[in-house]
Design goal:
Strand order of the largest sheet: 7-2-1-8-9
Largest sheet: 5 strands, parallel
Number of helices: 19
Number of strands: 9
Strand content: 5-15%
Helix content: 40-55%
Shape: elongated
Oligomer: single chain
Radius of gyration: 23 Å
Distance between the termini: 40 Å
Order of helices and strands: EHHHHHEHHEHEEHEHEHHEHEHHHHHH
Length: 420
Amino acid sequence: MEKIAFLFTGQGAQYVGMAKSFYDEHEVARQTFEEANDILGFDIAKLCFEGPLGQLSKMENMQLALLTVSTVAHRVYMKEIGIAPHFCAGHSMGEYSALVSAGAIKFSDALKILVERGKLTKKVVDSDVGAMTIIDDLDSNIVAEECKKISTSENFVTINCYNSPLQVAVAGHQKSVEILEERVLDLGGQITPLITSAPVHTLLMKEASEKLQLHLQEYNFYPFRNAVISNVHAAPYGDSENIRNNLALHLVRPVRWQETMKFLEKYGVTLAIEMGPKNVLCNLVKANTSNIDAFCYGQREDREILYDRLYKNEQLRKHVPTVVTRCLAIAVATPNCNWDEKEYAKGVIEPHKKIRKMQEELEKQGLDPTVDQMIEALEMLRSVFDTKKLPKKEQVEWFNQIFEETGMYYELKDFNVPEL
């Protein structure tokens, strides 16, 4: 049986033209770009498709573009294949995309948060205080030791991304980073300076981290549909209440990607699917593990392989949820706080029987539910919630989870979710 992880790309994966094929071929991709355009107030699709690359690569634009493109890839996958992952993980700022995919943050809210994060990181970039470089072909322990030799309390360089045994990123004060680059070349390593990058995941982002944490108080976060591995801890978030603190720490703590890959391997993941524009993280899967196959859903040839491997697997397809099946399951799982037998019979048992019969007919005919049938099932679930006296907050969380899990957020956008 496949055990799947979704991986979400961070800085460096952007290129002009990314996600254009998704936009041309899939309605959900166009709808996602339109939603992003409405939230941001500018045409993010045009920036992704036409560039120029210099504008696309600016920190404040790149974060928004990669979040949107990763969300597009994820939503197209859920429409076309629909096999849910066991784990999600995002490299650096890709963690925001992972949280969106797991239903813990609304896409619209993640865009707004990244607008603020972009302003905070841009301020650090404009100060010219820091720099960032990728180092290849040198053991991370050697790099760490050289960082210690160079760093002082006033001027430091540190590993900020542990990518693989032979690849790390370093960041810190510009002078110290430049000295380290010279040492790395002397020791036989390779360097790739990241121009106009903020020294993220270091203490140079402390003020930005504190301001971001305050900004995060303005948003609601939701239960995880799938476990998301935190960059900070290389372990699952656990409760959604941890999101604010983790995303603030995310700016000042190193990315523990190598440990994240080992976590996925330890827990039996067999297939990693990169939800991004190109196969950056697939290469890191191969560099860190020996038992996980990796493919990028943003690459057409990889999509065809995944379609054959997953969609055509009848055993896996049995587990793809629909709005009707999720409503039936949630209705049964919802605890009851109403002991009036007449109300329970009318508000729970009768509508549940009706939708159960609908599902049996759909299975018999081998059909997917229509939008009208989905709305009927959702109204049944609303009746169950109200009769069982489920708090409104939990009702909203369940409805949002159904929309995200089944990919029906746009088709069902007019369904009247209870207001808090």
